[in-house]
Design goal:
- The chain has 303 residues and is an alpha/beta fold.
- It has 2 domains: 250 residues, Alpha-Beta Complex (Spore Coat Polysaccharide Biosynthesis Protein SpsA, Chain A); 45 residues, no CATH class.
- 37% of the residues lie in helices and 16% in strands.
- It has a 5-stranded mixed β-sheet, with helices on both faces.
Length: 303
């Protein structure tokens, strides 16, 4: 029995660039110790890739009316088949390295219930990656030199004990909102929500949205609106990595650093809890840090 069951719902392998980055991601997972991998869905090329890499393929996932796999069904399928004590849902464009498994083992030795997440590094990756030799050091060096640490919005992986998230709404995978709900749910259930950014480097391979209708970003699609509704509205989708309750540093679980972003989130949650007041996004930042907010607004307007 493996320690972690990693599962994902890949996009079709018909787009050459999407195929490259998804194959890169899956191969990086195959180099992790003590994991089993599940590819979920019936997208074009998926069965062939699962067979090629010798990983488990689960085709019979429930879908919405647009044919998008539902996260609740993904969770149910993996729980039914895997005996692993920990589950990890990961986007199929994410490169993982063994430091993730090290972090999971360190946290599991200190906590019974937990949810692991962390910020990603964005990196252009156009070609198949060479996983021979000391591939981890090469990949880390490339990301450090050419990549960029993503802001604490959007989460590309969650690792947690299998008894967490026993009930999940019918979110559409690959659309906004469901990851915010995962963070909100952990806070609501008082599960330690541990930011592993200081200990784990995960790498997001940049891509466009040509695989989606009209080539538009997923957050503009009606499926995202439905995800937001299922999550509980715009208040819930404000939850992000800034809402983590702890961080992992040198193998130890510690309180999170009090950055400006985290302080603003604490104030925002307090105002909502005490006064029932929900401010428009970035309002507090505009008041506390007006110069930064003004510069961001100017960049947005130029775009």
């Amino acid at each position: 029995m493996s320690l972690i069951a990693i599962f994902t719902a890949p996009k079709p392998f018909t787009n050459p660039h999407v195929a490259v980055i998804q194959r890169n991601a899956i191969q990086s997972w195959l180099h992790l110790p003590d994991v089993e991998i599940f590819l979920i869905g019936e997208e074009s090329g998926l069965a062939r890739v699962a067979k090629e890499f010798g990983v488990k393929h689960l085709p019979n996932v429930m879908r919405n009316t647009n044919g998008t796999p539902l996260i609740r069904s993904m969770f149910d399928l993996v729980r039914r088949i895997s005996k692993s004590p920990l589950l990890g849902i990961v986007n199929t464009d994410i490169l993982l390295m063994p430091d993730l498994v090290t972090a999971v083992r360190q946290v599991a030795a200190q906590r019974e219930r937990f949810v692991l997440l962390g910020r990603r590094w964005d990196l252009d990756m156009k070609e198949p990656f060479d996983f021979s030799g000391d591939w981890e050091s090469r990949l880390q060096a490339r990301a450090s030199k050419h990549g960029r640490l993503h802001k604490p919005a959007g989460s590309d992986y969650f690792v947690f004990p299998r008894f967490c998230y026993s009930e999940v709404p019918d979110f559409a995978i690959g659309r906004a909102g469901w990851d915010n709900w995962m963070i909100y749910k952990a806070r609501k259930e008082k599960w330690p929500l541990i930011d592993t950014t200081d200990s784990v480097m995960i790498i997001h391979q940049n891509h466009d949205y040509s695989h989606l209708p009209g080539g538009q970003p997923h957050y503009t699609l009606p499926e995202t609106d439905e995800n937001i509704r299922l999550a509980g509205g715009t208040t819930v989708i404000r939850y992000s990595i800034l809402d983590a309750t702890a961080k992992l540093v040198n193998g130890k679980i510690r309180p999170p650093s009090l950055t400006w972003g985290r302080l603003l989130r604490i104030i925002e949650r307090w105002m909502r809890a005490v006064f029932g007041l929900v401010l428009p996004e970035n309002t507090l930042e505009a008041v506390v840090r007006p110069r930064r907010w003004y510069k961001r607004a100017k960049r947005f307007l130029r775009k």
